[in-house]
Specification:
This protein has 1 helix and 27 strands. The chain is an all-beta fold. The strands form 6 sheets. Strands 1, 3, 5, 7, 9 and 10 form a 6-stranded mixed β-sheet that branches.
């Protein structure tokens, strides 16, 4: 699910390109819709101004800027007169970011041709204390298994790094720390014990360090305990479908698809039927019939059946496995 964070600060505004030839209407024109700030050391402040012109014949009113991640703010003047210029200043505190980032924003205005416009900021945040892999721990297993993953903690400062303790923020794993190179690197081992109940667990831990700015380093711990017969990914997301763009470029419909793997840890099985209550989906399986330990579902979008709105549905896969007679795959979509 996408979560957007709103910034409303009077001072400037951001957006891409809007086209409006309606008499007495504003027309927003943006010089750029993307900006790459390159490499930046973690903890620094980033600021960029996106220039916007009003080439219409009525005042351009800038309402709000929504971001896909927290930690960003936007400043803008709320009104740009016809023929005038303004800007949206975007500020970002990089303390909570690490590695490659893509920040998405959406500006709302009174331009009748394009009341909302999306823009992006991207770059690479060089971490002071690096967790490798940057995404943290991702462990998938079955209830009767025990699994572990080891992460490397790397110090990129001259001052020696000391990790005094590991604070767990979850109940489905244990964690142990081993110093690899004094003051420079550690191995953090996450272990999920056998007998962990079925389900997905989004947990975390904190590394307590001697760094003056990064005294607490968060590490994500994501655990998935699967049934013998399961689908991966667990859900299908078709949010962000824009009918106006599809009408202008019909071939883009070929890019709207998802693949889901349905497999049985214990061996071959049969898919007896596949049903969905989402009307614009076409689903095929491979192999198309018979028994297999692994099936691929090709899930495609039918353009002629799309209609604006939000969809919350599912795909039901019926099997011949007694312990798992059906698998429900949630489907969400947002069409505008």
């Amino acid at each position: 699910m996408k979560i957007r964070f709103t910034s409303i600060v009077l001072f400037g505004v951001l957006h891409g390109v809007c086209f409006s030839d309606t008499p007495g209407a504003p027309r927003a024109v943006f010089v750029e819709k993307t900006f790459n700030f390159g490499n930046v050391k973690q903890g620094g402040e980033l600021t960029h101004r996106f220039q916007v012109k009003n080439e219409g014949t009525a005042p351009l009113l800038l309402d709000r800027v929504d971001f896909n991640l927290p930690g960003l703010t936007a400043k803008f003047k709320p009104e740009i007169p016809p023929g005038g210029e303004g800007f949206v200043q975007v500020d970002c505190n990089t303390a909570s970011f690490s590695g490659p980032i893509d920040l998405e924003a959406e500006l709302s205005s009174n331009d009748p041709a394009k009341p909302k416009f999306a823009f992006t900021l991207s770059g690479l945040i060089d971490p002071v204390i690096e967790v490798d892999p940057i995404s943290g721990a991702y462990i998938s297993l079955y209830p009767d298994e025990k699994k572990e993953q080891t992460l490397r903690i790397i110090n990129h400062e001259q001052q020696p790094l000391k990790i005094s303790s590991v604070e767990k923020q979850g109940t489905h794993f244990t964690a142990s720390l081993k110093e690899v190179q004094s003051g420079n690197s550690y191995d953090l081992t996450i272990t999920v014990p056998a007998g962990t109940p079925l389900g997905r667990y989004e947990e975390a831990l904190l590394l307590h360090t001697n760094h003056p700015k990064f005294s607490k380093v968060p590490v994500g711990v994501n655990i998935l305990v699967m049934r013998d017969v399961h689908a991966f990914p667990e859900s299908v997301d078709f949010k962000g479908i824009d009918l106006s763009i599809l009408n202008q470029n019909p071939s883009l419909i070929d890019n709207l698809y998802e693949n889901v793997i349905v497999e049985n840890r214990r061996g071959d099985f049969e898919i007896k039927s596949i049903e969905t209550n989402v009307p614009f989906l076409k689903i095929t399986q491979a192999p198309p019939s018979g028994r297999s330990s692994r099936f691929k579902l090709d899930i495609k979008v039918l353009k002629e059946k799309l209609a604006p709105g939000q969809i919350s549905g599912s795909i039901r896969v019926a099997t011949d496995v007694k312990e798992s007679p059906e698998i429900m795959i949630p489907v969400v979509a947002e069409i505008k």
